[in-house]
């Protein structure tokens, strides 16, 4: 494996098999241990969803995987081509949509790649729009295009649909599945929506007390119906792992 070492953070040049390896990854803030020696292997192309109560360290883990936080102990391996998107689209307000997508991309093909990515998220006609004229769902599509245009081997999504209305959310879930079926990145998505997790995941992880307390593969065929008994059964398992027993309530 051709790998570059940056401190305790080893990044492979190309996607590796498995795509992501965590080896005793820990992160503390002051004397509070948030991540407590996480070990994990994620296969190339796997769609992993992480759930957990608020404050259990999901965003902390994603930031480490994105290379945005070097203050951890342990080691991890991840593809060098990584993109991250957040709950809020984080568009640059003084740049139009296309330059927001191509921000930081160099080379003659950047514009064409940006257009293609926007086409793929259904915003091919909004290239020259300003961010403040977009709906919440459109802005999040732009954020997704910005993540996908880098052709990531690892796509990191931190509650990407958390701020969207229920209908837009379903559309965005479908769009994400289409993009993933086409480009096959390895995905790590964080959500509080257990049903969303079961609909999307190849594998569900629940983070609690600094460790993964549930690691469950979801082999149900796609597309999955939220009303399907198998989906509801797995949803109930996850809620139980989260310590939530009320049938329809979701964790905070
Ligand atoms: N830079 C920081 N300095 C101090 N404490 C931090 C810092 N970043 C995160 N924390 C703390 O670490 C814990 C985990 O934070 P994190 O944002 O990873 O939680 P989370 O699981 O993503 O929560 P949520 O579901 O609410 O987004 C929280 O208690 C948070 O206050
Ligand atoms: Mg978070």
TrEMBL record:
Matching InterPro entries: AAA+_ATPase, ABC_transporter-like_ATP-bd, ABC_transporter-like_CS, ABC_transporter_ATP-bind, P-loop_NTPase
Keywords, alphabetical: ATP-binding, Cell membrane, Membrane, Nucleotide-binding, Translocase, Transport
Pfam families: ABC_tran
ABC transporter domain: residues covered: 20-234
Molecular function in Gene Ontology: ATP binding; ATP hydrolysis activity
UniProt-listed SUPFAM superfamilies: P-loop containing nucleoside triphosphate hydrolases
Designated name of the protein: Unannotated protein
């Amino acid at each position: 494996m051709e790998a570059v070492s940056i401190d305790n953070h080893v990044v492979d040049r190309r996607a590796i098999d498995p795509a992501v390896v965590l080896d005793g990854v820990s992160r503390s803030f002051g004397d509070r241990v948030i991540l407590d020696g996480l070990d994990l292997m994620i296969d190339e192309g796997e769609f992993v969803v992480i759930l957990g109560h608020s404050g259990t360290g999901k965003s902390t883990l994603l930031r480490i995987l994105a290379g945005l936080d070097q203050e951890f102990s342990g080691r991890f391996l991840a593809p060098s081509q990584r993109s991250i998107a957040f709950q809020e689209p984080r568009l640059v307000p003084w740049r139009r949509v296309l330059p927001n997508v191509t921000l930081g991309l160099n080379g003659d093909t950047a514009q064409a790649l940006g257009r293609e990515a926007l086409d793929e998220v259904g915003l091919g006609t909004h290239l020259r729009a300003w961010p403040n004229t977009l709906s919440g769902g459109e802005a999040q599509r732009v954020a997704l295009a910005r993540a996908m245009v880098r052709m990531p081997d690892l796509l990191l999504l931190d509650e990407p649909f958390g701020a969207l209305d229920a209908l837009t959310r379903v559309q965005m879930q479908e769009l994400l599945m289409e993009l993933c079926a086409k480009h096959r990145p390895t995905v790590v998505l964080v959500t509080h929506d257990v049903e969303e997790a079961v609909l999307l995941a190849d594998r569900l992880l629940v983070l609690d007390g600094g460790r993964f307390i549930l690691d469950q593969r979801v082999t149900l065929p796609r597309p999955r119906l939220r009303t399907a008994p198998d989906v509801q059964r797995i949803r109930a398992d996850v809620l139980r792992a989260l310590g939530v027993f009320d049938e329809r309530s979701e964790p905070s």
